[in-house]
Amino acid sequence: MSHRRGVGNGGGKLIRVPQDEMPDDLEAAVPSAEIDLAEESVSASSSMDEEFVVERESAKMRHWKESPYAVGLVEPTWHDERQRRNMRPTAIGCISCPEEIEPTCGCLYLSGIVCTKLGAGRVGNMAVLKETSVGDRTKIQLVVGPYWPMLLCVTYPLIFGVSAWTAVEAIPHQNIIVVFIWATLTFGLIYSLFNVGFRDPGILQRHSEAPADGWRWNDQAQTFRPRGAI
Fold it and tell me: pTM higher than 0.85 for the full model?
């Protein structure tokens, strides 16, 4: 025996239906109009998703071609990067990554969160913190690479921690000359690390024409580049 909720009786009464009266094909009991409507809804949703992906990839490609820098094909902004990571169907821990794990996956996910809040720009996988206009081009003044979490959470704490411990435990008992040499080397190390971590490493501007002899065309970056450029 099976139960079917009565419709004509206010939907509150249960009507017993004998098993031999149940339809062999349950789909036959569902009106074809409802099936067609459901299929059309799924098809429309799938079509909208495909159009969204196509438009997103077109905008991505257009931004890459119009970029003044010779960089790889990435999401235009960090906000877009964050959205792309959130749309991933697979996840490792709390970070969404593709099936083939990218080396910068976790760092790029953090960049998408932090750099979106800071309003930082993007050049390739590098976060631009400050830039100025020089003529018809822009000059990067402050930039961090994709592995900036390692710089801030490992490298700098290690250097500052060891330096602070040395300043408290060892330096006070040394000769003034030793103290001066230690202070000079320590501040020089911190300043050099700042320049390495936050200065423009030499990102090549995009050139549609060779500005000098010896420049060669690179299809990957869509620009002319000098010999030895990476």
Answer: no
